[in-house]
């Protein structure tokens, strides 16, 4: 079947990159759900007043989103700087010794299973088309046309965390005082089941195990913070 029959089919690298971003977004939302739920449930165990719960939950949401964004920005910036340094080195090697670089690329294709003649032909044709792209993708695993974007990573991380954090905050503030914790726990567990299932599906892992792990982890976090909040509330009350 010719490639012309699938003119809009995405490339494997592009799909993998998008899945990684989506998976990171799901995990960011998961962090927002668990951390904010832990805060508001802990405060709700200590007091029945809405104001302290709202204050603590909002502060946790903002602090968490900012922290996630800064961490992601620093991490991805470091990765981007490393990729740019590798590309600069590769560009210099292509300029200074193109024959040796061509031999290296052909050897890499031969190591992948191509015959020596075919590997040489592929290396020559790809180098003629776009030498940096041809060598960087195979030798470094880096696509010079798709470098990671730290600002995109930071904003995506902050947004996903904030969306996740809104769920327990809304859940704890909406019902009457006696129902706040049960409603929040139920909402959080449902959300964790969903995020666990989605993240497992994106990664190709068994969904049941991921969902169970997510639910147990969230339950333990809520139980610990509720217990601490209850003890602190009793001590200062």
UniProtKB/TrEMBL annotation:
The keyword Nuclease does not apply. Keywords: Membrane, Transmembrane, Transmembrane helix. The chain crosses the membrane at residues 158-177, 183-203, 215-236. GO terms for molecular function: manganese ion transmembrane transporter activity. The keyword Transmembrane applies. It is found in: Endomembrane system. Its main location: membrane. Pfam families: VIT1. InterPro entries: Ccc1_fam. One of its GO terms (biological process) is intracellular manganese ion homeostasis. It is a multi-pass membrane protein. One of its GO terms (cellular component) is endomembrane system. This is Membrane protein. It comes from Mycobacterium mantenii.
């Amino acid at each position: 079947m010719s490639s012309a029959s699938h003119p809009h089919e995405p490339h494997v690298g592009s799909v993998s990159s998008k899945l990684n971003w989506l998976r990171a977004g799901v995990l960011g939302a998961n962090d927002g759900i668990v951390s904010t739920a832990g805060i508001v449930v802990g405060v709700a165990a200590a007091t029945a007043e809405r104001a302290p719960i709202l204050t603590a939950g909002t502060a946790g949401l903002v602090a968490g989103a900012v922290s996630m964004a800064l961490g992601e920005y620093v991490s991805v910036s470091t990765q981007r700087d490393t990729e740019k340094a590798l590309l600069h080195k590769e560009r210099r090697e292509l300029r200074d010794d193109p024959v040796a670089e061509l031999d290296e690329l052909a050897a890499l294709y031969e190591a992948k299973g191509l015959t020596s003649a075919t590997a040489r032909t592929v290396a020559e044709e790809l180098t003629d088309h776009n030498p940096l792209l041809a060598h960087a993708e195979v030798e470094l695993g880096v696509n010079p046309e798709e470098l990671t974007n730290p600002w995109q990573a930071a904003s995506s991380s902050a947004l996903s965390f904030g969306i996740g954090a809104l769920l327990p905050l809304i859940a704890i503030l909406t019902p009457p005082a006696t129902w706040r914790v049960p409603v929040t726990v139920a909402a959080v567990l449902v959300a964790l089941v969903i995020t666990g299932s989605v993240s497992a599906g994106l990664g190709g892992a068994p969904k049941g195990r991921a969902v169970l792990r997510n639910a147990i982890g969230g339950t333990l976090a809520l139980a610990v913070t509720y217990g601490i909040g209850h003890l602190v509330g009793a001590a200062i009350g």
